[in-house]
Request: fold
Amino acid sequence: MSTPRTPIPQTTRLKQKEFEAEAVPHMDLLYNFALRTTGNADDARDLLQETYLKAFRFWDKYEKGTNIRAWLFRIMKNSYINRYRKETREPGMVDYEDVENFYDSIRADSTDTNDLQEKLFGNLLSDEVTQALQSLPGDFRTVVILADIEGLSYEEVAEFLNCPIGTVRSRLHRGRKMLQTQLFEYARDRGLISSD
Reply:
């Protein structure tokens, strides 16, 4: 004998429909940012899931008609920062660099070639470009990823970071200069610029 299901209230169904219509279309963009921020597909999926769970839970706090992407990015950024703080307070059991080096050494052997996301975006940035991007200080890396890779406007980046547009422009300019310096040899070796 099965137990009867409790019907979902009308207000919950309406909230779910609104959320799906407004928030879900931005999931790929947020996943890409999470992946570039965490550097790990599993962590990126966890961060994305946590972001969307919080966004749904606090959907009534979202002001309809405002920038949904910036609101979601802010939730993601705060979740990432909170997770980072929690991890730094907990005693470490393993050296992160050892784990990262081990992961990098086995990643090529264990990659699922059926993962469409990996096929589409896996080789989008070469290792040198990815390393140069990852070596940028966090504030600059975030702005470069959001503006140059994800294509967000200065206004959207400023809203996400909760800072003035002038700060976004300054960080973007400085971040690009740092990347340019780091990638000069890479570009010259590939014939993208002349060696004169």
Q: What stands out?
A: DSSP finds ten helices and no strands in the chain. The radius of gyration is 20 Å.
